[in-house]
Write the structure tokens for this entry.
Amino acid sequence: MKPLLAQGRPATAPRLIVSLLAAAFVLAGCGGGGGSPGATQSSQQPPPATPAPGPGGQTAADIDASVLGDPFQYMNLCAKPRTGVDFQGRPFPDRQGTLLDELKFLRAWSHRYYLWYNEIPNTYRMADFTNPIDYFNVLKTPALTESGQPKDRYHFTYATEEWEKMQSAGINLGYGVTWKRNSATAPRTWLVTLVEPGSPAAAAGLQRGDMLLNVDGVDFVNGTGTEAVDKINEGLFPETAGVAHRFTLQRGSATFDVTMTATEVRVDPVKHVQVLDTPSGKVGYLSFETHNAVSEKELVDAFTTFRQAAVSDLVLDMRYNGGGLLYIASELSYMIAGPDQTRGKIFERSQYNDKTAPQEAIPFRSTAYGFSSPNPVRAGTPLPYLGLKRVTVLTTSGTCSASEAVINGLRGADIQVDVIGSQTCGKPYGFTPVPNCGTTYFSIEFKGVNNKGFGDFADGLAPTCQVADDLSRPLGDPAEGLLAAALAYRQTGTCPPATRARMVPMEIVRPPVQEISIYTAPRP
């Protein structure tokens, strides 16, 4: 899927530059909130559906999911079946089918599992679509929230191989750099926020705070027009490994040029594990960037280190963590709180549409799930824990989904969670990835609430202290703005002077995006 830089119009695909986090966030997540199935959160109800003529005089209602039946009868029936095996050596399940089979699968699936299935407009003819992704993009509620935002901002697809590589092995095709941006349209300000160790970006010397000026000879800040946009996207979001691209960046008052070659970068989800000595005791610090399978072992190792060091407090840096697996979020929360604080309490209860029976709640998991990864934890391994009654979380608008579920879940267990930074993204829903014919589909299936029944944070979780992200210092530096504020607040209970004037609204851009939360239990 080729990303496009916006030219004054919205984009819908998750790899598009305009579809990342914050206001334009159309990606994943889990968590609670959002109203009952089929009920809009605003007074603005979707317009009544008017069936449109279909093939052979049919109306759209004639091919609605109510007559399509079980979606599984259409699954893996593909217009262009894949042959051979996937990157893990498993045979593809594809069978010869048609485009109509793929569209029927999506409509039947949405009718059965989509949280707001009865708000999907029934005015689109399958005959008018030439590919399943375009059809999937319209299978969602058009309703708006009270603030005027789309009720469903989290409806997207991935190429199945790309998604599976990200989740099971933490592999992304690119340069190993995460950007923070003000806009997808000119004038653009894109700043480096993260550089993956051992990546092409690290080898090129990129640092936090570097500003992007030029991509392959095209003015990135002010470039417009189809030719310029295409060239920028080809450089920023390479689709083929081994291709080199040139970039000009600015650091302070100096500019410099680098050449980076795209490769499959293995992302390290847990970084900067440190024990900080403070006047009131030892404080653990770690930056956590995605709740994927790889992170399970790394979190276990980090908390083992903290427990051995007898830390008495923790600063959890999730400022760029867009989400991931709910079971990882549950395990992380248990490792913070321990058994005494979580006994008899749930981490999150998922609530599906009215076609699905109530499901077992997700507990605070005290043992490892044992996710498959290059360095797995054996299933059932007891998790280390700190037994804290207070934790500090660093956030930005890039803190989303499963990361918000950690905050909400801990608060549901009466753990004091101090949030230092910015309002979180507001991702109170979740889903199970649905692979079919080489594409994995993400469609909201549930909302979640914590042990106290709270989960309504569609506008995000407010910070205890509002503090601007500090790109002038590396993560983990005690003098870095958010970490310094967190350390000061735990000592004094007082927020530093407001930095709101310096807090220019920015969004997080990861090529490709990783902010996907999923429910890992068997599908109901």
In short: The chain has three domains: 26-158, 171-262, 270-432+450-501. The CA atoms of residues 38 and 116 lie 5 Å apart. Residues 293-308 form the longest helix (16 residues).
